[in-house]
Design brief:
The protein is an alpha+beta fold. It has one domain: RNA polymerase II/Efflux pump adaptor protein, barrel-sandwich hybrid domain (OB fold (Dihydrolipoamide Acetyltransferase, E2P)), CATH 2.40.50.100. About 20% of the residues lie in helices and about 35% in strands. The protein contains four helices and nine strands.
C-alpha cells in the first residue's frame, strides 16, 4: 500500500528523494483520518521550509490539519491540481496527490525519518 522507496514522518507525511530534489505529500493513513479533503493551502514557490515546521494546511470535512516539512529546503513546485480538485489527496495520496516539490537543504535530516518498515511498525502502535 505504501511505496517502499519513500521516507515517512510521525506526522504522516511522505517524501520521495531524487538526488537533491524531493516530492512531499501526505500518507494514505493521514487522508483516511482526515476524511474528504475540501481545501489545500499551498506555499508559494521559493518559500524556504524548515525541518518539521508547518508549510501548509489541509482542510477536510472532519478537521483542519497542518502539513509539516520532512526536511528543510526551498519549494520549487506546488501541485496546482489540488486547488481545483483537493479530493485527489483522498484518491491517490502517494502519486497524483503530491503536495510540493523542493530542493533539499540538508540531507542529514533524512536520518530523522522512517523507512517503510519503521512507518508500518509506527502505525501498528497507533492501533493498539
Amino acid at each position: 500500500m505504501y511505496p517502499e522507496d519513500y521516507y515517512y514522518t510521525k506526522d504522516h507525511e511522505w517524501i520521495k528523494i531524487e538526488g537533491n530534489k524531493a516530492t512531499v505529500g501526505v500518507t494514505d493513513f493521514a487522508q483516511k483520518q482526515m476524511g474528504d479533503v475540501v481545501y489545500v493551502e499551498l506555499p508559494e514557490i521559493g518559500t524556504k521550509l524548515k525541518f518539521h515546521k508547518s508549510f501548509g494546511v489541509i482542510e477536510s470535512v472532519k478537521a483542519v490539519s497542518d502539513v509539516y516539512a520532512p526536511v528543510s529546503g526551498e519549494v520549487t513546485e506546488v501541485n496546482e491540481d489540488l486547488n481545483d480538485a483537493p479530493e485527489i489527496l483522498n484518491e491517490d495520496p502517494h502519486k497524483k496527490g503530491w503536495v510540493i516539490k523542493l530542493n533539499i537543504e540538508d540531507k542529514a535530516e533524512l536520518e530523522e525519518l522512517m523507512s517503510l518498515s519503521d512507518y508500518e511498525k509506527f502505525l501498528e502502535g497507533l492501533e493498539d
